[in-house]
Amino acid sequence: DFLFFWGAVFLVTTTLVAFLKKENEELIPAKEETKGITDTYRLLFSIIKMPAVLTFCLLILTSKIGFSAADAVTGLKLVEEGVPKEHLALLAVPMVPLQIILPLVISKYTAGPQPLNTFYKAMPYRLLLGLEFAFLVWWAPKVKHEGGFPVYYYAVVVLSYALHQISLYSMYVAIMAFNAKVSDPLIGGTYMTLLNTVSNLGGNWPSTVALWLVDPLTVKECAGAQGHTCATAAATEV
């Protein structure tokens, strides 16, 4: 029902735009940035060879390593500790208005000459929230009872998620603002796409590595089997 509703909204709105929105024919069409795929990749290669771009790419490729585990694994570990998945999904609902409002508020601070200042200021808070998430996972079995989890535990989880969204969007909007500011207007689309792709990759590869490391880094104990560590999948199966 959810997908059907928003699919219908999507079809209606895009159809209205197609019929009601007219192109401004008075404007002279801008010259195309590139003529084909080969030219595009040649242009990308020339951009990424610049020392400043290389330094920036290295920054955004490694900047999210410190909180990748907290971002990727916290939800899974809470479910493992007994928090119902549907409850975690419901906790995401209060975050929606916050996610809409935050970019509007943060953009006021990233519109100046140094948008990355917001990125740097938000990073230590996001790192500290990683410790907060670890505390939530450790705390979960302590407060669990037969009826589930107390309301105050969910309140702390929602508050933690809200603070996390503030730090996350502060970094995200700052990076987007910086990319828009430094991109050459003559090749803006190609330039922005390159920087945003590297930025997305900088967030995805640490999360993938963190998820891959969860199993080998988890300490396991075997009940009733002396001398077994259950460190590997085969030992756990035995």
From TrEMBL:
Any one GO molecular function term:
acetyl-CoA transmembrane transporter activity
Q: TM spans, by residue?
A: 6-22, 43-67, 87-111, 123-140, 152-175
Listed under GO cellular component are: membrane
Localization per record = Membrane
Does the entry feature the keyword Cell wall biogenesis/degradation, yes or no? no
Question: Keyword Membrane, does the record have it?
Answer: yes
Q: What's one GO BP annotation on this UniProt entry?
A: acetyl-CoA transmembrane transport
PANTHER family registered for this protein in UniProt: ACETYL-COENZYME A TRANSPORTER 1 (PTHR12778:SF9), SOLUTE CARRIER FAMILY 33 ACETYL-COA TRANSPORTER -RELATED (PTHR12778)
Please report the name of this protein according to its UniProt entry: ACATN protein
The organism named in the record is Pheucticus melanocephalus
